[in-house]
Amino acid sequence: MNTITAIETRFFAFESDFVDSLRCIPMIVRYKLDTCRVKLQLADWARLNYHEKDELAELPCHSQEEIDAYADFVHALVWKYTSTVPSLLKTLDAAWVHTQVPAEVREKAQEWNCPVISAHQWMQLDVLERFALVKLSRSGHEGRNFPRALAEFGLAAAC
């Protein structure tokens, strides 16, 4: 049976500008979506009501049964508003589970003139923190949140 690390629902301080309204997809939901390999478009997220968004943040997504139920719930929500189902990620590049700092995180830190993150520091972060840094390192994410996340996770002062 496939079981992932249980992640407590929490929001990061660097997400504070949108967490109250949930206008953007918070990292906890992105983590759960990646876990069940569902690609939820921001336009589809925007159609959901606040209660549905909050439920996606709170629902467990750890055991295979929970992962399947979470994916089914997301599909049902998207279908409700769009009469389509979200696409699935072909593969899951879970760079956050590796013991070495992913190249994309190192490169993003260098781009922002932030200190180098050691493998020891990387492994001291919890799974959701490592996930957030990987996601914030990839194109399509607001760059200003990367140094804010580093500071929040105790890896750098203002960089």
Explained architecture:
It comes from Dyadobacter fermentans (strain ATCC 700827 / DSM 18053 / CIP 107007 / KCTC 52180 / NS114). This is Nitrate reductase associated protein. The chain is mostly helical and 159 residues long. It has two domains: 13-88, no CATH class; 95-152, no CATH class. 51% of the residues lie in helices and 3% in strands. The protein has nine helices and two strands. It has helices at 16-19, 27-35, 42-47, 50-58, 64-82, 103-111, 119-124, 127-137, 145-152, and strands at 38-39, 87-88. A two-stranded antiparallel sheet has the order 1-2. Helix 8 packs antiparallel against helix 9 (145-152). The longest helix is centred in the middle third of the chain and has 19 residues, at 64-82. It is globular and about 45 Å long. It starts with 15 loop residues before the first helix and ends in a 7-residue tail after the last helix. The relative contact order is 0.15. The model has no long low-confidence stretch (mean pLDDT 91).
